[in-house]
């Protein structure tokens, strides 16, 4: 049988989707940001043979790496497609390399706003069709065990990488742009938003069952700048994805926004139209619930560093966290991505403890 986006196996575990939509669940669903990655020896084995972006661009490899954590950790209630947020700048014509030990490097970052016009918005999403192919293949190979999450970087986070040329502790250049070139910045953020919307719709068409938007660099923005340079675009992305899915007669999917360091504007985030808000570990679950109200799902938020503690301690911290969030409208996760040296057993303890709790 041909593996198309029309004949997927039926979903057997829908806890994640139920929690995102505010329906009752038998157990709290759990998954982990960056669950398919550097801490897994089986991932390292794939990476020893293939360059990072080759894995992203080869559906069979991306599918294999997506499935790896599910084989090792049977308690996981979701998978997230293996890719990276930086495939969008690549599709716009920028070169991005992944340097081991250093992270992403753009040899030619945006030097000034006149270079925005060189970015190739037209057909950008068709240059990302390999992500769609990886999603469709993975939906089949998962055999309905858990839902498949699609994702993107948010406009501000992507712009930051495009200007800085890689990760940055200070975001000095980006902050200079916000100050000096705010009109051009808004033009770039709007362009990125258009590409992101079509990219997310393509992911749903290919088989993604929930979408997460990573605003990983929100920690550089104070509330007022978050309201100007992040929130409006996040809101447009949510409403435009909904509108375009409807226009294409595709099924609606729940969406999550994760603004790392955005604890200062949870009230703003609650108004963006997303079903789920991701929280980093600096946010108190009970305070967050008070701010956002009862009609939104919360996701998070154990400090990834806590996975370096002893199993018994991880277990009790996890159970404590789940009790604070409660069983309703909650998806257990870490407060950011899992880090490379995390002991493999910690993930077992964490995922098991979530299902034991409540
Ligand atoms: C900011 C960001 C990036 N990429 C991503 C974000 C947002 C999430 C976050 O805030 O952590 C998102 C991402 N990147 C990757 C995934 C795969 C799916 C998963 O979560 O399991 C996802 C969802 C694979 C990856 N992306 C990367 C790796 C490791 C690269 C390698 O194998 O050499 C993986 C597995 C590399 C990457 N990619 C990026 C950085 C900064 C780095 C280097 C640091 C790091 O490794 O964590 C950009």
UniProtKB/TrEMBL annotation:
Q: What GO cellular-component annotations does this UniProt entry give?
A: cytosol
Report the pathway entry. Porphyrin-containing compound metabolism; protoporphyrin-IX biosynthesis; coproporphyrinogen-III from 5-aminolevulinate: step 4/4
What is the native source organism of this protein? Plutella xylostella
* Protein name according to UniProt: Uroporphyrinogen decarboxylase
Which terms are listed as keywords in the entry? Cytoplasm, Decarboxylase, Heme biosynthesis, Lyase, Porphyrin biosynthesis
Q: What is its EC number?
A: 4.1.1.37
What does the UniProt record say this protein does?
Catalyzes the decarboxylation of four acetate groups of uroporphyrinogen-III to yield coproporphyrinogen-III.
Q: Which domain of life is it from?
A: Eukaryota
Report the locations given in the UniProt record.
Cytoplasm, Cytosol
Give GO terms for biological process: heme biosynthetic process
């Amino acid at each position: 049988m041909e593996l198309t986006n029309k004949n997927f196996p039926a979903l057997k575990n829908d806890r994640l989707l139920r929690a995102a939509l505010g329906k009752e669940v038998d157990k709290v669903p759990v998954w982990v940001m960056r669950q398919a990655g550097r801490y897994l020896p089986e991932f390292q084995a794939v990476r020893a043979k293939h360059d990072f972006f080759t894995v992203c661009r080869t559906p069979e490899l991306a599918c294999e790496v997506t499935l790896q954590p599910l084989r090792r950790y049977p308690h996981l209630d979701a998978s997230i497609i293996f890719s990276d947020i930086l495939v969008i700048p690549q599709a716009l014509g920028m070169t991005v390399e992944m340097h081991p030990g250093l992270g992403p490097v753009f040899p030619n970052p945006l030097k000034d706003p006149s270079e925005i016009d060189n970015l190739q918005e037209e057909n950008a999403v068709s240059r990302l069709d390999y992500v769609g192919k990886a999603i469709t293949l993975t939906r089949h190979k998962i055999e309905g065990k858990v839902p498949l999450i699609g994702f993107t970087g948010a406009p501000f986070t992507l712009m930051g990488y495009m200007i800085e040329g890689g990760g940055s502790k200070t975001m000095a250049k980006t902050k200079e742009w916000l100050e000096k070139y705010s009109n051009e910045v808004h033009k770039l953020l709007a362009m990125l938003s258009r590409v992101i919307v079509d990219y997310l719709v393509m992911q749903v068409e290919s088989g993604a069952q929930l979408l997460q938007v990573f605003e990983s660099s929100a920690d550089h923005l104070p509330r007022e700048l978050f309201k100007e340079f992040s929130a409006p675009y996040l809101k447009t992305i949510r409403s435009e994805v909904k509108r375009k899915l409807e226009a294409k007669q595709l099924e609606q999917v729940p969406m999550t926004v994760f603004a790392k360091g955005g604890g200062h504007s949870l009230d703003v985030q609650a108004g963006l139209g997303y079903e789920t808000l991701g929280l980093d570990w600096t946010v108190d679950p009970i305070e967050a619930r008070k701010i956002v109200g009862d009609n939104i799902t919360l996701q998070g938020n154990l400090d990834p560093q806590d996975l370096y503690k002893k199993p018994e301690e991880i277990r009790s911290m996890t159970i404590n966290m789940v009790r604070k969030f409660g069983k309703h409208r909650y998806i257990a996760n870490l407060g950011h991505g899992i880090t490379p040296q995390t002991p493999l057993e910690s993930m077992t303890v964490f995922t098991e403890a979530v299902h034991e709790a409540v």
